[in-house]
């Protein structure tokens, strides 16, 4: 079960992911990113502080947006990953393909520093 | 010690499978990150079977078992009466291809092979058994 909240802070759209993302709930993550992109946000942060679990279905969602975000000049940064969640990204080597920081402040700085 | 659990082939039951793994192994003093990885591998294998072998039919069931051996060897079995889905015969796509083809699958197999020491398939009593083993420190 996953619960997703979105709030806007300045020019940043923050997607907060609460709970567990597996093959049954990854669609929720997919829809929320699609919505943010569809609304024209250029800076997207994904708050993972309350993300307790992610399986390959959720990782696949992040992967599937890499090209589209790049094409549309949208920047996305994930932050606040628990160690057990971060390790899933690391097993697959995805930590290098996505932008990940520890805190929200670092994520905001990163999203503004990133060049497309 | 052997723990058993039966799960209907609906993706909404994956959480139950994860809870079963965590609960069965809670007394084994496995570090949280390691236990998380093992739980993930079982989830990935179950979801692969549900999707590819059972088309998410909740009336089909998988039988899970976890055996904790004395030498700290963990043996996970998923017993399935349907056709076998053998990940050893499946070439996982390159990460680059996954990005560009926007495929949302294929990563799970990579995870299972990375996490478990061994993944093998056998026939027992006319049923297909996927056996994964992992030695814990």
Verbal overview:
- The complex is a heterodimer of chains A (116) and B (137).
- Chain A is 41% helix and 30% strand.
- Chain A is of the alpha/beta class.
- Chain A has one domain (2-113): STAS domain (Transcription Regulator spoIIAA, 2-Layer Sandwich).
- In chain A, α3 links the parallel β5 (75-79) and β6.
- The N and C termini of chain A lie far apart (34 Å).
- Chain B is of the alpha+beta class.
- Chain B has helices at residues 14-24, 32-53, 95-100, 107-115, and strands spanning 2-8, 61-68, 73-80, 118-124, 127-135.
- Chain B is globular, with a radius of gyration of 15 Å.
CATH class category of chain B: Alpha Beta
Q: CATH superfamily assignment of chain B?
A: Histidine kinase-like ATPase, C-terminal domain
- How large is the count of helical segments of chain B? 4
The main sheet of chain A comes to:
6 strands, mixed
SSE pattern of chain A: EEHEEHEHEH
Distance between the termini of chain B: 18 Å
Query: What is the typical, i.e. mean, pLDDT of chain A?
Result: 95
Spans of chain B with pLDDT under 50 lasting ≥5 residues? none
- Given the helix and strand composition of chain A, which structural class is it? alpha/beta
Question: How many separate domains make up the residues of chain A?
Answer: 1
Any idea how many domains of chain B? 1
Percent strand of chain B:
25-35%
Any idea of the CATH topology of chain A?
Answer: Transcription Regulator spoIIAA
CATH superfamily of chain A: STAS domain
Distance between the termini of chain A: 34 Å
Question: Helix fraction of chain B?
Answer: 25-40%
User: Fraction of residues of chain A in helices?
Assistant: 40-55%
Summarize the structure.
The complex is a heterodimer of chains A (116) and B (137). Chain A has 116 residues and is α/β, with parallel strands linked by helices.
List keywords for this structure.
heterodimer; A: 116 residues; alpha/beta; Transcription Regulator spoIIAA; six-stranded mixed beta sheet; 6 strands; 41% helix; B: 137 residues; alpha+beta; five-stranded antiparallel beta sheet; 4 helices; 5 strands
């Amino acid at each position: 079960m996953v619960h997703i909240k979105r709030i806007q802070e300045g020019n940043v759209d923050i997607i907060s992911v609460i709970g567990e993302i597996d093959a049954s709930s990854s669609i929720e993550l997919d829809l929320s990113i699609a919505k943010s992109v569809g609304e024209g946000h250029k800076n997207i942060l994904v708050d993972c502080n309350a993300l307790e679990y992610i399986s390959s279905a959720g990782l696949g969602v992040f992967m599937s947006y890499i090209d589209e975000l790049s094409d549309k000049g949208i920047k996305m940064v994930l932050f606040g990953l628990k160690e057990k969640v971060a390790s899933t990204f690391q097993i697959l080597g995805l930590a290098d393909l996505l932008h990940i920081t520890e805190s929200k402040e670092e994520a905001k700085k990163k999203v503004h520093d990133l060049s497309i | 010690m052997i723990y058993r659990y039966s799960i209907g082939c609906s993706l909404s039951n994956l959480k139950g499978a994860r809870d079963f793994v965590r609960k069965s192994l809670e007394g084994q003093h496995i570090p949280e990150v390691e236990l998380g990885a093992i739980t993930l591998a079982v989830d990935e294998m179950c979801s692969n079977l549900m999707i590819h072998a059972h088309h998410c039919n909740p009336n089909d069931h998988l039988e899970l078992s976890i055996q904790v051996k004395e030498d700290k060897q963990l043996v996970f079995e998923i017993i399935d009466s349907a056709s076998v889905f053998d990940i050893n015969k499946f070439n996982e796509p390159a990460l680059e291809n996954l990005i560009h083809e926007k495929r949302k699958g294929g990563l799970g197999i990579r995870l299972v092979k990375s996490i478990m020491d061994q993944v093998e398939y056998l026939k027992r009593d006319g049923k297909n058994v996927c056996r994964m083993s992992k030695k814990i420190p």
